User: Which sequence fits this backbone?
Protein backbone atom coordinates (compact mmCIF):
# COMPACT_ATOMS: atom_id res chain seq x y z
CA UNK A 1 0.00 0.00 0.00
CA UNK A 2 1.29 3.46 -0.91
CA UNK A 3 0.08 6.83 0.31
CA UNK A 4 1.12 10.01 -1.45
CA UNK A 5 0.56 13.03 0.77
CA UNK A 6 1.22 16.56 -0.42
CA UNK A 7 2.08 17.82 3.09
CA UNK A 8 5.18 16.81 5.04
CA UNK A 9 3.21 16.15 8.23
CA UNK A 10 0.19 13.94 8.85
CA UNK A 11 -2.90 14.80 10.80
CA UNK A 12 -4.47 17.73 9.03
CA UNK A 13 -5.24 21.19 10.25
CA UNK A 14 -6.40 20.22 13.74
CA UNK A 15 -3.10 18.62 14.74
CA UNK A 16 -0.60 20.62 12.72
CA UNK A 17 -1.93 24.12 12.22
CA UNK A 18 -4.35 25.21 14.90
CA UNK A 19 -6.81 23.30 17.04
CA UNK A 20 -9.97 24.94 18.38
CA UNK A 21 -8.62 25.48 21.95
CA UNK A 22 -5.49 27.12 20.52
CA UNK A 23 -7.60 29.42 18.37
CA UNK A 24 -9.59 30.47 21.44
CA UNK A 25 -6.41 31.03 23.45
CA UNK A 26 -4.87 33.17 20.70
CA UNK A 27 -8.10 35.13 20.30
CA UNK A 28 -8.20 35.88 24.04
CA UNK A 29 -4.55 36.94 23.97
CA UNK A 30 -5.31 39.22 21.02
CA UNK A 31 -8.18 40.85 22.96
CA UNK A 32 -5.91 41.28 26.00
CA UNK A 33 -3.24 42.86 23.79
CA UNK A 34 -5.77 45.29 22.29
CA UNK A 35 -7.01 46.24 25.76
CA UNK A 36 -3.49 46.68 27.15
CA UNK A 37 -1.63 48.31 24.26
CA UNK A 38 -4.11 49.10 21.53
CA UNK A 39 -6.99 51.43 20.90
CA UNK A 40 -8.66 50.74 24.25
CA UNK A 41 -5.57 51.96 26.12
CA UNK A 42 -6.00 55.38 24.53
CA UNK A 43 -9.59 55.54 25.83
CA UNK A 44 -8.91 54.36 29.37
CA UNK A 45 -8.31 56.17 32.63
CA UNK A 46 -5.58 55.50 35.14
CA UNK A 47 -7.32 54.08 38.20
CA UNK A 48 -4.23 54.41 40.38
CA UNK A 49 -4.16 58.14 39.76
CA UNK A 50 -7.92 58.34 40.43
CA UNK A 51 -7.48 56.47 43.73
CA UNK A 52 -4.67 58.80 44.79
CA UNK A 53 -6.78 61.82 43.90
CA UNK A 54 -9.71 60.41 45.84
CA UNK A 55 -7.48 59.83 48.87
CA UNK A 56 -6.25 63.41 48.66
CA UNK A 57 -9.81 64.71 48.56
CA UNK A 58 -10.72 62.69 51.65
CA UNK A 59 -7.70 64.07 53.52
CA UNK A 60 -8.66 67.63 52.54
CA UNK A 61 -12.26 67.07 53.73
CA UNK A 62 -10.99 65.81 57.10
CA UNK A 63 -8.71 68.85 57.41
CA UNK A 64 -11.64 71.15 56.54
CA UNK A 65 -13.70 69.54 59.33
CA UNK A 66 -10.92 70.26 61.81
CA UNK A 67 -9.38 66.77 61.86
CA UNK A 68 -5.82 65.80 61.10
Assistant:
Amino acid sequence: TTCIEKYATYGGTYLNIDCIPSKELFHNFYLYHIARDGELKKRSIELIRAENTNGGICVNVEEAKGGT
